[in-house]
Amino acid sequence: MTTTPAPPCAAATCTRSLRTHEHEAGQLLCTPCVHLIGVWLQVELPRQIIVLEASRQRETTGSSTGGRTAYRTAPLPGRDDILNLLGPAAWTDIRDPNGDQHGTLSILGVLIPWARTICDTRRWNPPALTPAVIADWLARPAVLDWAARQPWAGDMRDELHQLMRTVRATTRLRPQHRPVPQLCPRCDGLTLVATDHQLYIECTGDNCRAMYTREELALAARLDVAQHGAICLTKNCGGATHEIPAGRRTLRVHYCAPAVLEGAQR
């Protein structure tokens, strides 16, 4: 009996293959990618927009000579890179016969075409044309789950990925990556990394790249303690205590090798 290999996730920036249940449900994007899009649109982008709004104006410094600084041309009233990102965008297609429309797309310039595609196909009323409102609308489960099953789902994920890269490069605010003090259940490497707002903790080992929820890692820690060690109650034990994320709480697991326990009992 031959098994058909699982198709890859439709996003060019994702290296994960679809799981059986994802493929049977008609998804073209893997579940981590769908969750990540929701995090970008509902959690990170609104916060980035606040920083962009507060950074419109150029920084002003006094002249080193003590006089006024002269410009050949009048400077822009704000930072052009941020003004471009926060600028408006049309709901309909724009013709550019002179070829002078270039530069970085604004946030609305990326979000509006996808909202328009979905609204035209599903015959839904469009949301208000503000970045925060459109981002929240695109991240609604009914909208995002449907979009993840469309032929252009990979393109949507890749464009949003590029948008977030551009925004982060402008604000210099990026999600934090934190090492997790627990061995990977698959490769036994100390290579687990947790990223802000991410649903999964990922193994960064080149030959592994496994992904786990926090509950799965908490269960793996309990199993590891049951199989290879024990909970040590000795006051002066030299074992190590690790904090492992488990949902909204943190599980404190004390690892103590059997040899350490035998020495303590003697």
Major β-sheet profile: 4 strands, antiparallel
Which series of helices and strands comes N to C?
HHHHHHHEEEEHEEH
Count of runs of 4 or more consecutive helical residues = 9
Radius of gyration, CA atoms, in whole angstroms: 25 Å
Number of strands: 6
Strand order of the largest sheet: 1-2-3-4
Runs in which pLDDT lies below 50 for 5 or more consecutive residues are 257-266
Give the oligomeric state of the chains in this entry, treating copies of one chain as homo and distinct chains as hetero: single chain
Overall shape: globular
Estimated structural class: alpha+beta
Question: CA-to-CA gap between the ends?
Answer: 57 Å
- If you average the pLDDT, what whole number results? 77
Helix content: 40-55%
Percent in strands: 5-15%
Describe this structure in words.
It is built from nine helices and six strands. It has 266 residues and is an alpha+beta fold. The strands form two sheets. Strands 1-2-3-4 form a four-stranded antiparallel beta sheet. Helix 4 packs antiparallel against helix 7. The C terminus is likely disordered.
